[in-house]
């Protein structure tokens, strides 16, 4: 079964460490354990996360529920809290969490939610993670590029072009197709497309993008 990449967000470091130990014993990969919204956002942007386990009552500008909303993600979340008042539960439910654990909770309760998270992972997710170049991978579900396991930032147009090339699986993508997919509203100049391709090549070291004269380009996977 898929090994979950888990991000823990809890301002009580001792409890977070205990949770990380338990999750590791369950077979999860704890990517990071952070104490503030700022650190959480940084890790979330840089690493591939399958599941967030977060204390609602953070001693910060945002509580756990508001922080999850700010991430604007479909990544599953499990909330942990010492409180179970109706208002808190109602706010939590609005974000459609995977589960809600009230302290003190048992390992069995946590294990049940972890198994549920594994079951709900897309069945072909591993097929959506395309390896290419030296150390590069692109997750088609998340629309994210990674290099040696870390998040790699590309501009929106370059990201769309890369996705188009990867979807072609080594076949040539015509300049006309690039134009239609990337510039649906305003036809670009020939120099705009050439510049975009040049910049993508410059950004992705050790990745081969070949030209087919007067027709298109292909990525050598």
CATH fold call of the largest domain:
Rossmann fold
The number of helical elements comes to: 8
Give a short account of the largest sheet: 5 strands, parallel
Strand order of the largest sheet: 2-1-3-4-5
Over the alpha carbons, how many angstroms does the gyration radius reach? Answer: 21 Å
For the record, the count of structural domains works out to 2
Number of strands: 12
* Top-tier CATH class of the largest domain: Alpha Beta
Strand proportion, as a percent range, falls in: 15-25%
Residue-averaged pLDDT:
88
CATH superfamily of the largest domain: Response regulator
Principal-axes shape call? elongated
Structural class: alpha/beta
Low-confidence stretches: none
* Range of helix content: 25-40%
Question: What layout of secondary structure does this protein have?
Answer:
Layout: E1 5-9, H1 13-25, E2 29-34, H2 37-46, E3 51-55, H3 64-71, E4 76-81, H4 86-93, E5 99-102, H5 107-120, E6 129-132, E7 136-139, E8 144-147, E9 150-152, H6 156-167, E10 173-174, H7 175-182, H8 190-203, E11 209-212, E12 216-219
Parallel strand pairs: 1-2, 1-3, 3-4, 4-5
Antiparallel strand pairs: 6-7, 7-8, 8-9, 10-12, 11-12
Helix pairs in contact: 6-8
Brief characterization of the structure:
With 221 residues, the chain is an alpha/beta fold.
Written overview of the protein:
The chain has eight helices and twelve strands. The protein folds into two domains: 5-121, 3-Layer(aba) Sandwich (Rossmann fold); 127-219, Orthogonal Bundle (Arc Repressor Mutant, subunit A). Helix 6 crosses helix 8 (190-203). Helix content is 39%, strand content 23%. The chain has 221 residues and is of the alpha/beta class. It has a five-stranded parallel beta sheet, sandwiched between helices. A four-stranded antiparallel beta sheet has the order 6-7-8-9, with helices on one face. Strands 10-12-11 form a three-stranded antiparallel beta sheet. The two termini are 27 Å apart.
